[in-house]
Design a protein that fits this description.
Blueprint: E1 2-3, E2 19-23, E3 27-32, H1 49-52, E4 77-83, H2 86-97, E5 102-110, E6 117-121, E7 125-126, E8 134-135, E9 145-153, E10 157-164, H3 171-178, H4 192-198, E11 205-213, E12 220-224, H5 229-240
Parallel strand pairs: 4-11
Antiparallel strand pairs: 1-2, 2-3, 3-4, 5-10, 5-11, 6-9, 7-8, 9-10, 11-12
Length: 250
């Protein structure tokens, strides 16, 4: 496991450095740190994963997003698969559409879901009023499915394992907020109070596991990433919290 050192003079080298978990001639699996954009985006500036990997990644029609197959929000940490050839890029995208890549996340949420596991099947799109967030209150809905399992119930929060079936923008954050359990530390979807209590500087969301068959060799790949220090410290703080009488756990 090595670090990918940005090789460009455009400011990418000043950002967080992604760790390479798996590398071969066709693809990479990288561990993206929080604070790093996956690729250039309108209205956002700063270092990007795409720039950091520009000497290692390839594939796709957009040079600014070379090799990028899927994305994580800037303040979400964890695993991404990145292509190194056009063929790998096309096949990985097809696998995502066919739901042949398993993506598991850790999320600490406010409150406690009633069920031990569940599926959120609710179409998402840009919110009619708050245009910077995604929600079920939209005029341009796209199908979205998220599965969750409760790993640990705490006094005021719950630790979930979340599996994406689809991959819409902000899907996990919007879906968990829609069922009344926003991700702790997420200021856009209702988790700001929980984040302040636990000392979080970002949402508690980490892409911890990727599983798929290699698109060229057929080898089964399973890559894992442990939660970074800030999330582990917040989880420790959550485990020490006393029970609250408030309806939202704040």
């Amino acid at each position: 496991m090595v670090d990918a050192r940005p090789a460009s003079p455009d400011g990418a080298e000043s950002g967080p450095v992604p760790r390479i978990v798996h590398q071969d001639a066709y693809l990479l699996v990288v561990d993206k740190p929080a604070g790093l954009l996956t690729h250039p985006a309108r209205g956002h500036s700063g270092p990007t994963l795409a720039a950091a990997l520009r000497d290692l990644a390839a594939g796709g029609p957009d040079p600014g997003r070379a090799g990028i197959v899927h994305r994580l929000d800037r303040d979400t940490s964890g695993l991404l698969v990145v292509a190194r050839t056009d063929e790998a890029h096309a096949r990985l995208q097809a696998m995502l559409r066919a739901r042949e890549i398993t993506r598991l996340y850790l999320a600490l949420v406010t409150g406690s879901p009633e069920a031990e596991s569940g599926t959120i099947d609710a179409a998402l799109g840009r919110d009619r009023v708050r245009r910077t967030v995604m929600s079920t209150r939209t005029d341009r809905a796209r199908s979205a499915v998220t599965h969750f399992e409760v790993l640990e119930r705490l006094a005021r929060t719950s630790l979930l394992s979340v599996r994406l079936e689809t991959g819409r923008t902000h899907q996990i954050r919007a879906h968990l907020a829609a069922i009344g359990h926003p991700v702790c530390g997420d200021p856009h979807y209702g988790g700001a109070g929980c984040g302040r209590r636990l000392g979080l500087g970002r949402q508690f969301l980490h892409a911890e596991e990727l599983m798929f068959r290699h698109p060229l060799t057929g080898e089964f790949l399973r890559c894992e990433s442990k939660p970074p220090v800030d999330l582990r410290e917040a989880l420790d703080a959550a485990r020490r919290e006393p029970v609250s009488g408030g309806p939202d756990g704040d």
